Amino acid sequence: MREKTLVTFSKMHGLGNDYIVIDESKKIILPEEKKPEIVEEICRKGFSIGADGVIFVTPPSSDIADIRFRIFNSDGSEAEMCGNGIRCFVKYVYENDIFHNDHIWVETLGGIKEVDLDIEGEEVRASTVDMGIPTFKTTDIPMVSDKEEFLDCELDIGGEPIKITAVNVGNPHVVIFTDNIQNIKLNEIGPLIENHPVFPQKTNVHFVNIINRNEIEMITWERGASFTFACGTGATSCVVAGYKLGMLEEEVEVHLPGGELLIIVYDIDNELRAFMEGEAVLVFDGVMELEI
Predict the structure, then answer these.
(1) What's the CATH number where 90 sits?
(2) Among candidates 213, 244, 220, which has minimal Cα distance to 234?
(3) Is residue 81 part of a domain?
(4) pLDDT of 9 over the 70 cut
(5) Could you tell me if 256 and 284 lie in one domain?
(6) If DSSP states are collapsed to H, E and C, what string results for 85-121?
(7) Among residues 77, 151, 179, 193, which is most buried (max CB within 10 A)?
(8) What is the number of structural domains in the chain?
(9) Catalytic residue among 43, 88, 231, 238
(10) Sign of the dihedral defined by the CA atoms of residues 163, 142, 78, 196, in that order
(11) Does residue 188 sit within a domain?
């Protein structure tokens, strides 16, 4: 028999990419085996609070990290990393005195992330996230291919060859550069690429229009969540892919449906490292009743 439990939460968003944040830093609130189904129920827009995913604040398992970030997509699947989500996470952690420092090491499934917070008073105005070292190796993405890297190569999508670039920035991404971003049927082509058999762990999908070498616009089909207003790891993947292909400079402003992000790429001895800068917003705090 299920028991009813009251759970406090915060609704937050990064450029319209919205999340429910739950603090489990001191005690486990949701049973591990039930998290996927509970997350899926919480995220049902129109029937529950509604969100692109649920973020859990948990104690770190690594001696290097100060705190651990866990994120579940709206379909109940756990993701490795989320750029917009981690900015919401650090704002929540700082403003709720869970870890009160303007420099935080965050443990994620995609590795340890270093985050600098821009503090005004006691409020986090923005944060800069070290997104780490991206990899284009197909074995690391992962992608089933005989190519070592899949850079601007054709992939059959629903019977049509489309040039894609595959990259991993803590989670897998496909980047497609196009001049006709407004004509993309994202709801049709997004799922075809996300669930393509060459991506055993599925993939995020982004269509990118280059405005100039320091400015792009993009739309996203997010793995496990469908269309989203913004994707931080996606913006990072698009910029590093464009830089790798010689299309973009090191510092790029990214226009997403939900707002803007700044991505900076450093090329040190032919090894790329990316940083993401942007805001996060607290929408409201609340209490929900769950049957567990």
Answers:
(1) 3.10.310.10
(2) 220
(3) yes
(4) yes
(5) no
(6) HHHHHHHHHHHCCCCCCCEEEEEECCEEEEEEEEEEC
(7) 193
(8) 2
(9) 231
(10) positive
(11) yes
At 251-268, the pLDDT tens digits run 999 999 999 999 999 998
Q: Give the separation between CA 93 and CA 119, rounded to whole angstroms.
A: 13
167 and 87 assigned to the same domain: no
Which one is catalytic: 43, 82, 88, 238?
A: 82
Known active-site residue 43: no
Catalogue the E-assigned strands of the chain: 4-14, 17-23, 53-58, 67-73, 78-79, 103-108, 111-120, 123-132, 153-157, 160-168, 172-177, 204-212, 215-222, 226-228, 251-256, 259-268, 271-278, 281-291
Q: Token match 């944040």: residue? A: 21
Give 32-89 pLDDT, tens digit per residue: 999 999 999 999 988 999 999 999 999 999 899 999 999 999 999 999 999 999 999 9
pLDDT at 1 exceeding the cut of 70: no
Helix axes 83-95, 232-244, angle to 10 degrees: 130
What secondary structure letter does DSSP report for 265? E
Domain carrying residue 225: 153-276
106 and 163 both lie in a single domain: no
* Chain mean position to CA 183: 24
**Within this chain, do residues 118 and 27 fall inside the same structural domain, yes or no?**
yes
Kindly state whether residue 207 falls inside one of the protein's structural domains.
yes
**Are the C-beta atoms of residues 273 and 239 closer than 8 Å to each other?**
no
Q: How confident is the model over 159-186, as pLDDT tens digits? A: 999 999 999 999 999 999 999 899 999 9
Do 93 and 10 share a structural domain?
yes
Strand bridging mode 172-177 / 259-268 = unpaired
